[in-house]
Design a protein that fits this description.
Layout lengths: L1 H22 L2 H19 L1 H14 L2 E5 L10 E4 H19 L12 H20 L5 H24 L3 H25 L17 H21 L3 H20 L3 H17 L3 H18 L2 H12 L8 E2 L2 E2 L2 H17 L18 H34 L3 H20 L9 H41 L1
Antiparallel strand pairs: 1-2, 3-4
Helix pairs in contact: 2-3, 2-4, 3-4, 3-7, 4-6, 5-6, 5-14, 6-16, 7-9, 8-9, 8-10, 8-15, 8-16, 10-11, 10-15, 13-14, 14-15, 14-16, 15-16
Length: 463
């Protein structure tokens, strides 16, 4: 009976396989099989799915690049494998929660309200933009969906984490991914040009890679400063040293600028703040003596580019065309916002603006801009509140590093769309989820340790 059933199932599978092979391209078939495998793995154990997602963040290629009517990006829509995997894992997570209702869907956290407000603001502004013809429906829907997917990463983390050991396993994967891409970045340096993350396609995105390395590097520095385990300190030191060369050779001036406040905040929040801040200030002052010439030339290019059309001059200072274009786009974005001040033009409903804050303002209006600022404020607030509760040096270092790195990303967002870039936002929301649950995990760890001690005492007494 079993052999007959096996033959029938095999025959049906062969028929389906033959049909799909003749009807669809090999790439579509491969993606379909990959989606089925990842969905099944994530449904069985969501932790495995999260590991897959972590490694795909910086180690996945583009799978589709296409133009979009009315797009605000000016670069079309680029879909990466991690976008695809995030959607599949997210659907698997929803399905798993639907089957096992006791798991719960959205755990109550201090960030829920802020996330909801910002998501609703994006949906509302884009909906109105679509109805008025400012937003092309497909493009607006894709980008709003991407924003919401980042929040799904956060909720998957806070709903799934059950103990401190899980947190450490996730961190190992996150830091290992950074180590791998740092090595790949270093291998690009001898070839000349600006370093970018692997699998970026024909046109790399050094600014994105710089923001990612800044974020992970500062979090690692927080652990290096506070962790009481020598092995942890050594691993973080190696990771930071490996990330510095590719970070410098991204030649991302926005990332260089963001590094300064991130390091200052990190130094201020450590125990020996005066010593560390003094060393940082001296290091910044003497940095021109040992920085690579490519880095120094890139910084100086801001002010010494040969005279060209489109440059902005402030007094005696003439800014390069790239910086000037950003400042002009800020001004234009503000003027565009005044046309639709409450809800904005809708996500992707306005021309390309390569800076987060003016983009949020012009696309989602004062409503969305307020919600976005409230979301950032809530993240900083919950991080500081949790730092007051934490007693474990490891978790304290993680909280300090995340806070300082987030400050760096806010500055990075002055010259990039930092908070909508998948390769920065996926790790950011992973860490945000970890930060939110750390106090509960620490209490659980302390209770388990106390139970072990009490059990030991009772056994000693009984003997």
């Amino acid at each position: 009976m079993r052999s007959t059933l096996f033959i029938i199932i095999s025959f049906l599978v062969a028929l389906l396989a033959g049909y799909f092979i003749t009807q669809y391209k090999p790439t579509i078939i491969f993606l379909g099989l990959l989606a089925l495998v990842v969905f099944t793995i994530s449904f069985i154990n969501i932790e495995w799915g999260l590991y897959i997602l972590i490694f795909s963040m910086l180690l996945s290629p583009e799978i589709m690049t296409g133009g979009t009517t009315g797009s605000s990006l000016g670069r079309g829509v680029t879909l990466r494998l991690e976008d695809f995997l995030l959607a599949v894992i997210g659907l698997s997570w929803f399905a798993r929660n639907a089957v096992k209702k006791e798991l719960g869907l959205f755990l109550k956290t201090p960030l829920n309200k802020a996330i909801l407000f910002y998501a609703l603001a994006c949906i509302l502004s884009t909906g109105f933009g679509t109805m008025t013809g400012r937003v092309e429906m497909k493009t607006g829907f894709l980008f709003v969906l991407k924003y919401i997917e980042y929040f799904i990463v956060f909720f998957m983390m806070v709903n799934h984490v059950r103990n401190a050991d899980q947190i450490k396993r996730f961190l190992i994967c996150l830091f290992l991914t950074c180590f791998i891409v740092s090595i790949i970045g270093m291998l690009q340096i001898p070839g000349g040009g600006r370093v970018s993350a692997p699998f970026e396609g024909e046109i790399g995105e050094p600014n994105t890679f710089g923001g990612y390395l800044l974020f992970i590097g500062i979090v690692a520095a927080g652990l290096l400063a506070k962790a009481d385990n020598l092995k942890t300190k050594q691993i973080m030191a190696v990771l930071i040293l490996c990330s510095i060369p590719p970070f410098l050779f991204t030649q991302s001036r926005t990332s260089y600028l963001a590094l300064i406040p991130a390091l200052m905040v990190l130094g201020f929040m450590t125990d020996r703040r005066l010593i560390i801040l003094g060393v940082l200030i001296i290091g910044l002052m003497v940095s021109p003596l040992f920085l690579p010439s490519a880095v120094k030339n890139r910084i100086l290019y801001t002010f010494n580019q040969p005279e060209a059309q489109g440059q902005i001059q402030i007094g005696e200072i003439r800014l390069d065309t790239s910086t000037s274009a950003r400042l002009v786009s800020w001004k234009q974005a503000f003027q565009g916002w005044t046309q639709h001040p409450l809800l904005g033009h809708g996500v992707t409903g306005y021309g390309f603006v390569d800076a987060q804050f003016p983009r949020v303002l012009v696309e989602t209006g004062i409503l969305g801009f307020t919600a976005f600022c409230y979301l950032l404020f809530s993240i900083f607030k919950v991080t500081l509140n949790n730092l007051k509760k934490l007693k474990t040096p490891y978790f304290q270092g993680l909280g300090i590093g995340f806070f300082a790195a987030s400050v760096g990303l806010v500055v990075h967002a002055l010259g990039a769309n930092t908070f909508i870039i998948v390769r920065i936002m996926e790790p950011f929301w992973f860490f945000a989820g970890i930060i939110v649950v750390m106090p509960a995990m620490e209490r659980q760890q302390a209770e388990q340790a106390q139970e072990v001690v009490l059990r030991g005492k009772s056994l000693a007494t009984g003997s």
